[in-house]
């Protein structure tokens, strides 16, 4: 997240001379006398001098500073966070008036200044620079580069005005600029105490500007505040012989589920959706096996959250995968996942996204086998389009299912499909709005379980996506129903 200071240093104002202050004050007092005479109450406030000699007043020479604040981090979902504000120097803190406000992010400032528009189509690569375009309500155009640089269009790339630099996630989702999220947080000052009150389900970071004044001068400080998820409350306690003194043996342990099969594209898979999902699955105690069209090294989308190259070597080809060996299947997003779309009849501009008939057929048969065995079939972001174009008994496995997925642009092709949403809805899927699941306005928990279909919106949702799959697969009822014959 980008932050910009709310307060800047102003040029000092030259104080008025003593004679000028006397004239100004005398004029103000004379004006007050005239008004009272007109009102007929001059006797209530006799004016005995034409002016007051302010040179006799003691100047304000108090020196003090606002004590700096360290960055805050606290768990949400509980009591408000409180921090006492203090000052040092020749000042009584009781003589200070404190203030605090949330500093707008750079994206919020740009949206407020240019009134940017959210869109379902950001015209990717319209002028051949892999740029993505955002429009203003006033008619102006702006564009993002794959590196996250944001420009105001001025007739040519060379003449365009550079406004900001974001991380690559803003290029992947320009809505982060066109419709920036607002922190669900209340900041309050009570005397000399700063109180930060987050919404019940809010997590994230934001910057707060804290100020203080004694009427003659002021000071400010900036502090970064991070609200982390609340500590989980685990009320479950497995039964033991101590809980049941009459028991003679420990209950029989359930078998460990077999691995989860993750399918990525050999070209342009979304790295963060792969890595965060895999991490959550492994933290749930599940082994992960990676498949692709071939065992050749798989390369991710540029700027999709990888450290270094982000290359992954698949464990096996999808041609050799069998549903019998796995507890669930996961299709990772990224435009490269288009290569697994069985019933898609168009041709993509990027040849890597077209896949082979053998790979598409093997993918569809694998999905059918998972469905026949009543195992979880899951996908994230553009990977949900693979489920959309699959066919089980002649229809898509998500026909009539509620799903979450990437709503915006899909790869260029010779078809009328311009967005992933169009592909999903064409095949009967019921797609929710972005950020509408769980905490409103965030995609972090946009994961939907509809029967044995689990879907998630995008890379923001990947960690929770993996958590949900792990929970479902490790559920004793699921294990007992699907894997009772395992040893």
Automatic annotation (TrEMBL):
<feature type="compositionally biased region" description="Acidic residues">
    <location>
        <begin position="241"/>
        <end position="253"/>
    </location>
</feature>
<feature type="region of interest" description="Disordered">
    <location>
        <begin position="1"/>
        <end position="25"/>
    </location>
</feature>
<protein>
    <recommendedName>
        <fullName>DJ-1/PfpI domain-containing protein</fullName>
    </recommendedName>
</protein>
<feature type="region of interest" description="Disordered">
    <location>
        <begin position="230"/>
        <end position="257"/>
    </location>
</feature>
<dbReference type="InterPro" id="IPR029062">
    <property type="entry name" value="Class_I_gatase-like"/>
</dbReference>
């Amino acid at each position: 997240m980008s932050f910009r200071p709310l307060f800047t240093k102003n040029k000092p104002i030259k104080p008025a001379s003593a004679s000028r202050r006397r004239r100004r004050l005398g004029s103000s007092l004379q004006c007050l006398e005239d008004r009272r005479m007109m009102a007929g109450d001059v006797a209530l406030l006799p004016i005995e001098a034409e002016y007051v000699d302010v040179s006799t007043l003691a100047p304000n020479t108090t020196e003090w500073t606002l004590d700096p604040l360290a960055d805050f981090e606290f768990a949400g979902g509980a009591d408000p966070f409180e921090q006492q504000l203090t000052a040092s120097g020749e000042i009584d803190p009781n003589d200070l008036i404190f203030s605090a406000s949330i500093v707008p992010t750079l994206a919020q400032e740009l949206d407020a200044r240019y009134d940017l528009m959210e869109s379902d189509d950001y015209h990717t690569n319209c002028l051949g620079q892999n740029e993505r375009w955002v429009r203003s309500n006033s008619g102006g155009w702006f564009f993002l580069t794959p590196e996250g640089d944001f420009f105001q269009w001025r007739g040519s790339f060379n003449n365009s005005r550079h406004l900001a630099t974001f991380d690559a996630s803003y290029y992947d989702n320009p809505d982060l600029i066109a419709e920036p999220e607002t922190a669900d947080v209340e900041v309050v000052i009570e005397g000399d105490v700063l109180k930060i009150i987050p919404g019940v389900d809010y997590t994230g970071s934001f910057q707060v500007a804290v100020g203080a004044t004694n009427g003659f001068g002021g000071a400010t400080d900036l502090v970064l505040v991070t609200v982390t998820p609340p500590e989980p409350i685990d009320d479950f306690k497995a039964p033991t012989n101590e809980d049941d003194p009459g028991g003679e043996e420990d209950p029989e342990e359930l078998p460990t589920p077999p691995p989860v099969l993750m399918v990525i594209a050999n070209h342009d898979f979304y790295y963060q959706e792969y890595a965060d999902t895999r991490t959550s699955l492994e933290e749930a105690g599940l082994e992960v096996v990676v498949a692709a069209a071939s065992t050749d090294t798989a390369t991710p989308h540029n700027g999709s959250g990888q450290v270094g190259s982000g290359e992954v070597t698949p464990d096996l080809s999808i041609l050799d995968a069998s549903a019998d060996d796995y507890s669930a299947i996961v299709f990772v997003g990224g435009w490269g996942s288009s290569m697994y779309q069985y019933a898609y009849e168009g041709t993509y501009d990027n040849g890597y996204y077209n896949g082979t008939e053998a790979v598409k057929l093997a993918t569809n048969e694998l999905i059918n086998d998972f469905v026949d065995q009543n195992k979880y079939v899951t996908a994230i972001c553009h990977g949900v389009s693979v489920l959309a174009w699959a066919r089980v008994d002649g229809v898509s496995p998500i026909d009539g299912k509620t799903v979450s997925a990437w709503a915006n642009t899909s790869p260029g092709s010779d078809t009328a499909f311009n967005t992933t949403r169009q592909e999903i809805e064409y095949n009967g899927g019921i797609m929710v709005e972005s950020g509408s699941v769980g905490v409103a306005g965030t995609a972090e928990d946009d994961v939907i379980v509809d029967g044995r279909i689990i879907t998630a919106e995008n890379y923001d949702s990947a960690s929770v996506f993996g958590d949900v799959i792990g929970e479902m697969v490790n559920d004793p009822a699921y294990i007992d129903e699907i894997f009772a014959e395992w040893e």
